[in-house]
Specification:
The chain is of the alpha+beta class. It is built from 14 helices and 13 strands. 34% of the residues lie in helices and 23% in strands. Strand 9 and strand 10 form a beta hairpin. It is globular. Bound molecules: adenosine-5'-triphosphate.
Length: 354
């Protein structure tokens, strides 16, 4: 991992009045660009050849840089041109996926909003579970051995992109049969996780180290194909339905019963407190805990995304929650730029870029 002091040294050389917010053109880029502009920053979008039109059409970017492949962003000359422009990069889900967490940690010198150390904790399923467990979140049960499967489980393979490739099994035989069909090598690892029945909530939080506050900015439910499609025809399909898949195709807005808000906030606060113990100074900025609420009104958390998530795109103009916190439309993208602006004002950019 690039030592933090090296990144801070680069940041010290920045012209503070010329700070430019940049991200790669995908995922939540439009929201990030708009948020930067609303907070008075210049901005840059890095686009893959052929996708420029989307960003030109909305007219939200001051500058557009085109690459053949997103990994090009790691090239020395490319990074140098970003550093020359006093760029702070905003990571998002696609940014991390396309460039790879390991390569970001070891090769990305351009200052990035947030704490890079989080990449390690979030991309490793075992570490992620340890983090959430220590934060006293309730987690789905896991089975070590397929022979022990005694209820519906989800078989999760590493590197599944947006739930792609997961299978479901209710007993050891069903597992063996479906697993065999996948033709995987014996070395292919997987996690057997209890399938939790309930309603899903994906709360979007923001932690500000400057105010030491966890804010609940918004919430969504992921719309997933083809599991959500199957449910519309469940009584016709009966036993002939295709294997459910969990590929995200969109996001639906949601608010939670108000009596559940204290627990939602507590979960966010616990995750932050534990992150400080595990990887100082801990998680900074946006994050999302992926949960299922059971009929006992208990939240079971199955994953954490330690950055801006795509569900926040619903709320470019603010959400029912952010409207209570802010007097102006506050998206997560804008909240990131607001934090950078505040940090600049307090001369403490190094507290939000670690
Ligand atoms: P991403 O990285 O985009 O969050 P992923 O590949 O890590 O996706 P998960 O988020 O773990 O995949 O799961 C994908 C979907 O599968 C979830 O949105 C949810 O609908 C469902 N899911 C995951 N785990 C469980 C579980 N234990 N019980 C019930 N449903 C689950």
């Amino acid at each position: 991992m690039i030592p933090r002091k090296e990144i801070h040294h680069i940041l010290e050389g920045y012209a503070k009045e010329e700070i430019t917010i940049a991200t790669i053109g995908s995922h939540t880029a439009l929201q990030i660009l708009k948020g930067a502009r609303d907070e008075g920053f210049k901005n840059i979008v890095i686009c893959k050849k052929g996708t420029e039109e989307v960003y030109q059409q909305f007219g939200l970017a001051d500058e557009l840089l085109t690459v053949e492949n997103f990994k090009q962003v790691l090239e020395k000359e490319f990074q140098e041109q970003l550093i020359e422009r006093n760029v702070i990069l905003i990571p998002h889900g696609s940014f991390v996926e396309y460039i790879s967490p390991v390569r970001i940690e070891n090769e990305m010198f351009v200052p990035m909003f947030g704490n890079r150390a989080v990449l390690d904790w979030e991309s490793d399923r075992k570490k992620e579970r340890e983090w959430l467990d220590r934060a006293e979140l309730r987690l789905p049960m896991e089975f070590k051995d397929p022979a022990d499967i005694d209820r519906l489980v989800m078989v999760k393979f590493p590197g599944a992109k947006g739930g792609k490739g997961y299978i479901l099994a209710s007993n050891p035989d069903e597992f063996e049969e479906k697993h065999k069909k996948l033709n995987l090598s014996d070395k292919e690892e997987f996690t057997l996780q209890e399938y939790v029945i309930g309603t899903r909530f994906y709360p979007h939080y923001f932690y500000s180290p400057l105010t030491d506050r966890v804010e609940l900015l918004s919430m969504d439910i992921r719309y997933e194909s083809n599991v959500d499609g199957i449910s519309r025809l469940s009584y016709i399909l009966q036993d002939s339905h295709p294997e459910p898949s969990f590929v995200v195709t969109g996001n639906l807005p949601v608010v939670v019963r108000e009596s559940l808000l204290p627990r939602i906030l507590e979960m966010g606060q616990n995750v932050i407190k534990t992150s400080r113990e595990l990887f100082s100074p801990g998680l900074i900025g946006p994050f999302c805990i992926e949960t299922i609420c059971t009929e006992n009104l208990e939240f079971i958390a199955f994953e954490i995304s330690a950055r801006i998530v795509a569900g926040t795109n619903l709320y470019i103009n603010g959400s029912p929650y952010s409207q209570l916190l802010y007097q102006e439309p506050m998206s997560t993208g804008r909240r990131i730029s607001r934090e950078i602006k505040e940090a600049l004002r307090e001369d403490s950019l190094d507290r939000v870029i670690c």
